[in-house]
Design a protein that fits this description.
This is Cytoskeletal protein CcmA (Bactofilin family). It comes from Paenibacillus eucommiae. Belongs to the bactofilin family. About 12% of the residues have low confidence. The protein is 34% helix and 31% strand. It contains 2 helices and 18 strands. By secondary structure, the chain is an alpha/beta fold. The longest helix is centred in the last third of the chain and has 52 residues. It has a domain of 99 residues. It is elongated, with a radius of gyration of 35 Å.
């Protein structure tokens, strides 16, 4: 029987809601506890806990949750505050914004991935890692420095070649002038 007036505290670490195999759910779900889907789900999911999509599940949803595990088929965008795991039997078609992303061998992911800037910045500073844009900028600066160095080397080589050519021409011209004067 249902108790009225008493609230039980929900544990977001335990599965509180199960959409069983053979069940079709159309509509949005908002849950404070974790959710496991073994059937079919069509509609957005906002979950404070974890969302697990079972191996036989088919889900067409945008999902926002703490952690998400996909062992079945999922189509939609995923946003997690934690980890997204696509298992070896899982398929995900959609864009993701997560703190951590794991795809096991055999798992399929088609879409774009990004990390939220505050999480990514903290992780980069902690791990002393630079992002792709910074890396690209550093490489461009290195190439520009190398080209600048090469141009200055070429200019100094050209000047020294020009000076030595001029000196040798001048000396040879002077010697030939002296030979001509001595012959006369």
């Amino acid at each position: 029987m249902l108790r009225r007036g008493t609230k039980r505290k929900l544990d977001s670490k335990t599965t509180d809601t199960l959409i069983g195999e053979g069940t079709i759910c159309d509509g949005n779900i908002m849950s404070e506890a974790s959710l496991r889907i073994e059937g079919q789900m069509n509609g957005d999911i906002a979950c404070t806990g974890d969302v697990t999509i079972g191996q036989n599940a088919v889900v067409e949803s945008n999902i926002e949750a703490r952690d998400v595990i996909i062992a079945g088929q999922a189509r939609g965008n995923i946003h997690t505050k934690g980890k997204l795991i696509v298992t070896s039997t899982g398929t995900l078609i959609g864009n993701i914004n997560v703190k951590s992303f794991v795809i096991q061998e055999g798992g399929i992911f088609q879409g774009t991935s990004s990390m939220s800037t505050s999480i990514a910045a903290a992780d980069r500073s902690a791990a002393n890692v630079i992002d792709a844009q910074t890396h690209k900028q550093q490489k461009a600066e290195q190439k520009a420095d190398q080209k600048s160095d090469q141009k200055s080397d070429q200019k100094s080589d050209h000047k020294s070649d020009h000076k030595s050519d001029h000196k040798s021409d001048h000396k040879s011209g002077h010697k030939s002038d002296q030979k001509a004067a001595n012959a006369n």
